[in-house]
Amino acid sequence: MAADDGGVFDFGINFGGSLANVHLNSPISGIANSPGPNGYLLVAPDGGVFAFGDAPFLGSVPGVPKPGQVLNGPVIGIQHLGAVPT
Prior knowledge:
This protein is mainly beta. It has strands at 30-33, 39-43, 49-53. The protein starts with 29 loop residues before the first strand and ends in a 33-residue tail after the last strand.
């Protein structure tokens, strides 16, 4: 479970860290487990993605492809789409 300030509560997973003491430009809006057994991803409405544990960081929206890019709407969730790494 993730709080909007980036705090992570580890119910049945390995705790890999949180953003609770980090200034965020936008509150956290979603969390997803990683394809592997020991990680998770957090996402913010502005498209920021934060990877913890064995979750691969594949990029985020802020600054890509150009600084100041505006989304048509807020990001409200995240889901991993990869297979379990071998």
